[in-house]
Write a structure and sequence with these properties.
By secondary structure, this protein is an alpha+beta fold. It has two helices and four strands. Residues 22-55 are annotated as: Disordered.
């Protein structure tokens, strides 16, 4: 899969709300989208029209924060 397609798919998995808070889309309902901070935390709900796609740097941060830490 080309890199552009991979990034595009990931950006739809993450959204930024009107306050600038970055979240992973974990669910949708009538007139709302449920987000969770990358890496876990308390979920919050926002209207879909209050969301935007993350910038490349926001997406990079989300991917880093959601990557599990492996210890030996």
């Amino acid at each position: 899969m080309p890199q552009e397609e991979q990034t595009q798919g990931r950006s739809t998995r993450y959204k930024v709300d009107a306050s600038g808070k970055l979240g992973e889309v974990v669910g949708t309902g009538p007139g709302s989208v449920c987000l969770r901070p990358p890496g876990g935390g308390r979920e919050w709900t926002v209207p879909p029209d209050a969301l935007r796609d993350p910038t490349p740097s926001e997406l990079e941060r989300a991917l880093i924060l959601s990557t599990p830490v492996v210890t030996r």
